[in-house]
Structures are given as structure tokens and as C-alpha cells.
Write a structure and sequence with these properties.
It is flat and about 30 Å long. By secondary structure, it is α+β, with helices and mostly antiparallel strands. It is about 20% helix and about 30% strand. A four-stranded antiparallel β-sheet has the order 1-2-3-4.
């Protein structure tokens, strides 16, 4: 797997380690927990990720 460029959520706290991080890997979006980066990552397709983040943006959490 190529080296991934991880991006943190804009909603993460100031210390930056209480959030999820995402990276792109070809046709996949890779998601990990910033508190434990050695744990297995989740991967989803770009379209599924777009729908997921779109639904979050429309929710009133």
C-alpha cells in the first residue's frame, strides 16, 4: 500500500487526537481512529463516503 496522506476532521479538538482521520487510496477512502493508528482501518468506496458525509452534513447532530 502506498504511503497515505491522512487528513483530520475539522471538528477534532485542539490536541487533534480525538477524531477520525481519512486518506484516499486509489478508488477507496480509508478511515482510522486518530487515538490508535495501529488498529485496522476501515475502507469504503468514494461514492459511499460522499453519501455518508452528505448525510452527516444534513443531520442535526
Amino acid at each position: 500500500m502506498p504511503e497515505l496522506k491522512w487528513l483530520k476532521s475539522t471538528y477534532s479538538e485542539a490536541s487533534g487526537n480525538n477524531c477520525v482521520e481519512v486518506a484516499r487510496n486509489g478508488h477507496l477512502v480509508v478511515v482510522r481512529d486518530s487515538k490508535d493508528v495501529e488498529r485496522p482501518w476501515a475502507t469504503v468506496g468514494h461514492e459511499a463516503w460522499r453519501r455518508f458525509t452528505g448525510a452527516l452534513a444534513q443531520s442535526s447532530y
